[in-house]
Amino acid sequence: YQRRVHGRRGLVEDLLAMQACNLVCLPENYQMKYYFYHMLTWPQLLYVCEDYDGKIVGYVLAKMEEDAEEPHGHITSLAVLRSHRKLGIATKLMRSAQKDMKTMFFASHVSLHVRSSNQAAIHLYQTTLGFRVNDIEPKYYADNEDAFDMRYYFNKEQKGGMVQPDGTVEWPAGAAKGEKAEKLAQKQAKDTHENEKGATKKRNPKKKK
User: What pLDDT is attached to residue 185?
Assistant: First the structure.
């Protein structure tokens, strides 16, 4: 049967349940003072989803980057309990926060980071919500996994790369890669070249005179 849930703005009394949801769902965890900081500074951008027993089953924690060159929103954390996934909860939470970024704070776009191996999240952001890869952040996470820096622009055509099924990023023809993505591609090309040189030397060792 379909679980009955509803979304609403988050309240201070929801923060402990949000933190508990975060600890169950994600490896990136935050101290309670970080949740309070978001609640006190950007209460409009915090949304939760609860079931009809009042249990918090998902949340989005977002903020504004108001000192940036282009003031924009940023998704700090998004989580939905495994028991309530594939119900469209994450999509609704994201769209609620994005709407308020645009209408209340006049954000030009929204940004986020996602693990390069998190295929389910990448599908949500890219296919369902229309985000594109702005750059690649090497070793962004504590365990040294890379992150995709993704963006969605509110009032103009989307730009950037798209993550492919094999995890690589395909950039539009003629479009510049993100600065870090370009450096990463150059490093990978250099490593490949060095490996090929090494393999050639092993196959064709120099004859001793």
Answer: 57
